[in-house]
Design a protein that fits this description.
Helix content: under 10%
CATH class of the largest domain: Mainly Beta
Number of strands: 52
CATH topology of the largest domain: Jelly Rolls
Strand content: over 45%
Radius of gyration: 45 Å
Distance between the termini: 64 Å
Strand order of the largest sheet: 8-14-13-10-11
CATH architecture of the largest domain: Sandwich
Amino acid sequence: MHSTQSDRGLTRYFSPTPQFDVTTAIFLGNTYHNGLVAGQQYGVSQSVTILNCLDGTYYLIARADTNGIFEWDPNIDAELNNFSAAKQITISNFAPDLRVKEMTIPPVVIDGVTPINWTVRNYGTAATLQTSWVDRVFIYDGSQFRVLGDFPHTGALAVDGEYFQNQIVYLPHNIEGSVQIFVQTDAYGNVPECSLDDNNTDARLTDAQGNFPDLSITSANNPSSAQLGSTVSVSWNGINTGDAMQSATSWADRVYISSDQTLGPGDTSVGSQVFNTQLGANGIYNGSSQITIPNLPAGGYYLIFQADAGNNIEEGTRENNNSLALPITLTLPNIDLLPTTPTVAPVLYSGQFADVSWTVNNVGANATVSTQWYDHIVLSRDLIIDQNDRILDRVLHSGSLAGGAGYSVTRSVRIPEGLTGEYKILVIADRNNYVVESNENNNISPPATVDLQLPPPAELNITHIAPPVSVGLGESAIFEWTVQNSSANAASGVWQDSVYFSADATWDSSDTFIGARQHNVSVAPFGTYTETLESVIPPIETGSYYVIVRTDARNTIRESNEGNNVSSSVSQTAVTIPTLTLGNVLNTSLATGQERFYSIFNVPADETMLVTLTGEAGSSNELYTRFNNMVSRANYEIQGTRQGEPDQENLVGNTFPGKYNTMIRGDYVPNSFAEQLKVADTRKAKADQLASTGRLKGGTAAIWNTACIARNCGEQWLLDDLGRGSKIPARSVDQTGKYRGFDRDSPDADV
């Protein structure tokens, strides 16, 4: 039997064991062989490169037929004898060994600048094959390592060869005290040293001495006691006991109130002063501040005066002496806000308004330091204030309240709908504890008990709707209607009247919402009110529509009959849209957030149409186009792609016959800039208009349906004669899967 197939011949491996294991074997190389007749043999001789860093006993194993040509023998498994016997080989490692020796650095480093030199020697058994690597100098200050510099070396290094480096390094400016300076040769591991690369570093100790200033507070003046909420004067004296500041700078001293003498994260900053000066050695300065004592539990505290609280001044290791703590006793002021029982009708109707009156007295002797706080009116099932209670109103009080003085308030509040039964109305004076008081436990008033009932039913119905005769899409229009309360009971509360456009006289979810008006004035029995709504017409299909009004659209008013809250106008309103003519320019204007709509009629089939919007510099506009149906920001087929720019364009390729709708929008228009909207004539747009935009540079161009060729029909490209192109939206894809083209010089001729 013989084979003329080509196999990979022999593959050689180094194996750490006599038995071949593909997971541990080291590939050395292979040779290819073409065909071998029965009984024939061939010999192989090849030079291989032994990998770096191999050391010890290995076994050379050869494998025939690596790519698995079919083999068969009736007596044995012919695939099992493709491996040679293992031949033991002893490999000695020859590798360089780079070490740093004779490193020197001064015992004291002044101002962070120091010379440093070192020698690197190759103690290995082989020269370096690499001719460049980097020596690194870094520092350890007891908390972190920081690199001081990388210094390249160029040139191979023979066995026992050496080179010398002499450099200047700069220590971090805030380092002081005993530090270690390290030199590491071949910092990036460029030179393979096998197992000999753990001795590449040497270190020396040095004493870093910097010329740093040292700010501290020497004394302070503050009152021994102060009332909570009061404002007091404090002052302090500071000194720079270190070296002079090297440049003009600024820092801030702060004053804190603390429960102990150590400044911590829970302490409260109550005052500060910023200093802009350059202190010399032993220079002194003075600070002062008016501090307001916060609302804290009365008792003993400390005022901590902290120099350079933001650590703007580098002081090296001398940052631990910047503060001074002095005791202060905080006392309660003679201030006490006390609300009276609220006055309110005993029977209230849910969903309607009720007047609540109350008085807050300062029964203390001192005026409040705070000049603003909020009183809350709360509706509760019980006398316990919790998250289940309803806040009916928040009332701001402005002005200090003298001792023995008071203020009275009356508010009309709305009772939530659907509540019945006994409730409590309470007033909480200074709900947020802005006022520091001697007694914070009496700020909740005694309750006023009320009986909540469902209101007597009113009867709202619409008696008249005055629709506009015609409206334009995107334009403002006025709608007017009259509602009557056909009941002997007043209609009181808050309700909403909503206005819709409808294709028929019956309201349903498909009708277009125009706008709504809130109503919160009581309507007397058998009384009426007339409401007016001015609103911009949203994007809907043109045509004639009825105006439908829904009074109390959210059913917040209790009525005897909820079925007559909807009414339709007798006459219809014509919804129109301006027309754009092919080839003509329309000058218009836009304001920020304004939208305008246009229709383009009589567009021929299988043409190319370009719609352009030109805006003033500084504005940001949008442009959308859609075939046949009304266009909007949510429903469009083509969108301008120049986001945030004033100029936009929509390119419609392979037009459908009929009508297209276009919408423009001003995202940001600083001064209601004028805009120019143009629809190019479809015949000219084939080449001339496109060329004028810079999309075509001349010559023959084609709209090529590349996606249809790829059986996706998702995109196509507009190409110039140099093959440059821009993607055209999927809407313009020719569904036949073909492409259309034109010659710029003969726009009427298809290519």
